[in-house]
From TrEMBL:
Annotated Low complexity bias: 24-39
Protein name: S-adenosyl-methionine-sterol-C-methyltransferase
Gene source species: Gymnopus androsaceus JB14
TM regions (residue ranges): none
GO molecular function: sterol 24-C-methyltransferase activity
Region spans: Disordered: 1-63
Biological-process GO terms, alphabetical: ergosterol biosynthetic process
Domain Methyltransferase type: residue ranges: 175-271
InterPro entries (alphabetical): Erg6_SMT_methyltransf (IPR050447), Methyltransf_11 (IPR013216), SAM-dependent_MTases_sf (IPR029063)
Entries under CDD domains matching the protein: AdoMet_MTases (cd02440)
Key words, A-Z: Transferase
GO cellular component, one term: endoplasmic reticulum
């Protein structure tokens, strides 16, 4: 899946950060919050109004796609029957929801948090390599930041937007929750000259993150931890800023997690979230909506079904001030990028199925590709109906 670029890409100096985002002033009322959201809307309109402007991003921490794909192909080719069985069985958790504990216990047993943890390890140990076969090695579809850019460029544009809005300065210590393979952390470090600590529960992804950072001599640290197991193994008031990208759909207790994040952040630190929410148009009693939700949750790896209001309430309960709350995508739609990813993986699936038929690839590749591409169209449809999004963005701060 290659990015569409209508103009050249230029390089940012590694530690050069533009002036902080102007909409990040602390609000003291609902009208202030509305004004802050309006500033984000103005920025999105400006991005859309200049589709042919150059895409100015720092690509120095981006991995070589062919090398990454080859490594993941080798891992997937050598999966054992037990690994395949565990991966396929892990999908059971996406038919559940943290808020329905009775269903959790009935399906997974009294120790359901441990069962969910084990399923997530089995799921991500395979999924991260499937995603690396395309443009979603970072395992997220970004907000549409530029309508003429592809997935990779929109990821970089969003990450640099985050670095500006949380006001990163060279030497800052930053916490990345659900860091995956550490590719976002690497970009943040190169772009802003910061030290990033990443948390993730999957040892396979962390091994990749450490090797990637070591090769590039980046000041990154990676800790294996399930963020549903609290407290975090981190010192109080030890971080200057925090961000997470589409990880909290796996969070069992948002208020408890945000209290821990509050604890480890310094006073005045800013926090940036990008995550999945159901939107006001979603009606759980509508059969079409409910069916779309059932199909989407396994695709995006969501156990919970939060709303923007739940995120904001949990942040405020923990002591944070919410500065911005809005959909980060231009026009509030991710569908153009979801369609791009879906189309790529469907084409890849056709190739894989042909190679399996010719006995060039082992049979389990067919199972993997059919599972991966199963519900992309449902994701696109729900996004266009504005029922859900994975590009909802919140900026908050810990008061001084």
């Amino acid at each position: 899946m290659s990015s569409i670029r209508h103009s050249p890409v230029t390089m940012q100096p590694a530690a050069s950060v533009p002036a902080p985002f102007k909409g990040s002033a602390t609000p003291s009322s609902n009208s202030d919050r509305t004004s802050s959201s309006d500033s984000l809307a103005h920025e999105k309109k400006a991005r859309k109004a200049k589709p042919n402007s150059s895409i100015d991003v720092d690509r120095s921490a981006s991995p070589g796609r062919l090398q990454t794909m080859r490594k993941s192909y080798r891992v997937l080719k050598n999966l054992t029957p037990k690994q395949m069985e565990d991966f396929m069985n892990s999908y059971v958790i996406y038919g559940l929801d943290w808020e329905d504990e009775a269903q959790m216990i009935a399906t997974l047993g009294p120790d359901y948090p441990t069962a969910v943890h084990d399923c997530l390890v089995s799921y991500y140990s395979v999924l991260n390599h499937l995603c690396a076969l395309g443009e979603v090695e970072k395992m997220y579809i970004p907000p549409v930041m530029n309508t003429h850019a592809g997935i990779l460029d929109n990821q970089l544009l969003y990450e640099e937007f985050v670095a500006r809005e949380i006001e990163l300065k060279a030497g800052d210590r930053v916490l990345d929750l659900g860091c995956g393979r550490g590719r976002v952390a690497a970009h943040m470090s190169k772009y802003a000259g910061v030290h990033v600590t990443g948390l993730n529960l999957d040892a396979d992804q962390l091994a990749s993150a450490r090797a990637f950072a070591s090769k590039r001599k980046l000041p990154l640290e990676f800790i294996q931890q399930d963020f549903n197991v609290l407290p975090l193994k981190l010192e109080s008031e030890s971080f200057d800023a925090f961000y997470q990208i589409q990880a909290l759909s796996l969070c069992k207790d948002l208020p408890a997690t945000f209290r821990e994040i509050y604890r480890v952040l310094k006073p005045g630190a800013k926090l940036s979230l990008l995550d999945w929410v159901s939107l006001p148009a979603y009606d759980a009693k509508n059969p079409e909506h409910a069916e779309l939700m059932r199909r989407i949750k396994p695709l995006i790896g969501a156990v919970g079904t939060p709303t923007a209001e739940k995120f904001q309430a949990a942040l405020e309960e923990a002591g944070f001030r919410v500065l911005k709350s809005d959909n980060a995508s231009i026009d509030g739609l991710q569908a153009p990028l979801i369609e791009r990813a879906d189309g790529y993986f469907r084409r890849l699936q056709s190739l894989v199925l042909a190679l399996v038929k010719l006995h060039v690839l082992p049979p389990h590749f067919k199972t993997l590709m059919l599972r991966l591409t199963q519900d992309g169209q449902a994701f696109i449809q729900a996004d266009r109906m504005r029922l859900i999004t994975t590009s909802y963005h919140i900026l908050a701060e810990k008061p001084l």
